[in-house]
Amino acid sequence: MQTNHRVYETQDVAYDAVGPTMRNGEIAEAVIEAVAHDNPDQDVYVTDRGDYLHIHTLMECRLTRESLQRSLGRSYELPMLEMEMSSFAGRLQTSDLEYRWYFKS
Predict the structure, then answer these.
(1) With left for phi above 0 and alpha for psi between -120 and 50, is residue 90 left, alpha or beta?
(2) Comparing 44 with 4, which gets the higher pLDDT?
(3) What is the rounded distance in angstroms from the CA atom of residue 15 to the CA atom of residue 33?
(4) pLDDT tens-digit series, residues 30-75
(5) 84 near 43, Cβ under 8 Å?
(6) Class for the domain spanning 7-102
(7) Residue 99: other Cβ atoms inside 10 A
(8) Contact 63, 31 (CB under 8 A)
(9) Using one digit for the tens of pLDDT, what is the confidence trace for 13-27?
């Protein structure tokens, strides 16, 4: 994970953690970097489950198409992310420009 933002590996997932669970690989690594960029005031936590990575922040997690494309170095449409995303925590709001996971009790 190459980012200047605060990204932590953890085995614990907090009750109010939200974000995607991704198949391990290039897209997941780009999502980690993009989430760190899109949530500058948040710590980003990554729980490694072998084939899958749970990428999460607390209460709200944003992912923009612009940041993801920058991380990948190529064009990428957000709906394609759903093929790599096996699950997610929280509620999900989607658009062509941004995915937003959020906590609602």
Answers:
(1) left
(2) 44
(3) 23
(4) 999 999 999 999 999 999 999 999 999 999 999 999 999 999 999 9
(5) no
(6) alpha beta
(7) 25
(8) yes
(9) 778 999 999 999 999
Strands across the sheet containing 91-94: 60-64, 98-102, 91-94
Name which of 100, 105, 103 is nearest 39 in CA terms: 100
CB of 71 closer than 8 Å to CB of 30: yes
29: closest CA among 67, 63, 1? 1
Among 73, 38, 59, 62, CA closest to 105? 59
Asked if pLDDT for residue 7 goes beyond 90, the answer is no
Nearest to 22 by CA among 103, 82, 100: 82
